[in-house]
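Hi everyone, sorry if this is the wrong subforum. Our group has a chain we'd like a structural model of before ordering constructs, and none of us has done structure prediction before. Sequence below.
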Amino acid sequence: MATVNGEVEGAEPDEKEEQDVRTGSLVSQSLPHEYQKEALEFNVESFRLDGALLGERGDLDEEDQYLSLVDESNWETLELEGAVTINQDTVEDVFPFNEWDETPGRLALVKENPLAMSRDRQILTDSPLEGGTHEFTLSINRDDHRGRVKIKPFLTRTEKGGSSGSKHASKVGARVADGLSWIVRLDERDDGGSLLMPIIEDFSDYDRFPDENHIHYLSLEAPRNPQLYLNKEHPQIINVLNNTGATGGPPRLRDVLYDYVEHSVWTQLLMQTARDTSPDTGEPEYSWQEDVLGIFLDDLYPDLGDDEAKIQLAEDVRSHVDVPDLVQRIERAVHQQYNLPSDTTNLIEEAIQSDD
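Answer:
Right subforum, don't worry. Here is the predicted structure as tokens:
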């Protein structure tokens, strides 16, 4: 197997163009050119810890493309070997016909590690791009990474394209196709980062985050470990959320803001839990979902026992007829956990008194 050398570079120089045209959706983005999502086939064929095959070590889920090494210690280097395949059909979809013979494209693996503030790319093949299978070897040094590492393939342009009226990308560095991610979990955070203990990041640094108008983002890319992020691009809001006081205007404002954020987060977590709960057994897929059910199940289905309620939840989310009612149930159940009208009214009254 051919080994790609350790040359890594920063992000694509013009990827900012993609951030500027986002729709603001939490789960999707809109680009002004032809783009093929999940069109690159990304396979990891082997994992090695310090040169030895993974074997029974770690928690490997090949279907979800997830590896956890949280319970593994005393290792220095994780090495992934595999291949990324790009079909000629994909090349012809995202590049104009006059570029098919000598395609100005680059195929790369992008490795992101938010906690270590690290983002690198490893080039698998450069211009002129050829379709087919491109092998790789990629290393993760334990001392240089923390928390979660995401590895994702991208296809980008390497030369300026034709007229701006074309449906194809024209700028150097524009991304035109991607593949599914592999997630490697190295450790659990001991300084926050649980479901409602957010990590503060600059959203513009990451492609899958929403745009700068968003205060928060709940990542469900690794469903077994959801992660809440706050947008560092709003420093005044972050300062309020970090306030540790108990009385006065800033703590009241902090509580209202957190209520707003958590209301959105719990709604998403409940929907994810419903999807991941078996309609046959009522068992959710991940341990954190048991905690979510423990908080909200009685409010969702007050007339049913726990086991019946779990099965009903799983059935409702799979029924086109029952989903609207389920969404209303979830909204009501989440509202029961908060007193937004009262807290907001108190905040308004305090603001009015301060103006007198």
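For your construct planning: Helices lie at 16-20, 88-94, 235-241, 249-276, 287-300, 306-317, 323-336, 340-355. The chain has eight helices and 14 strands.
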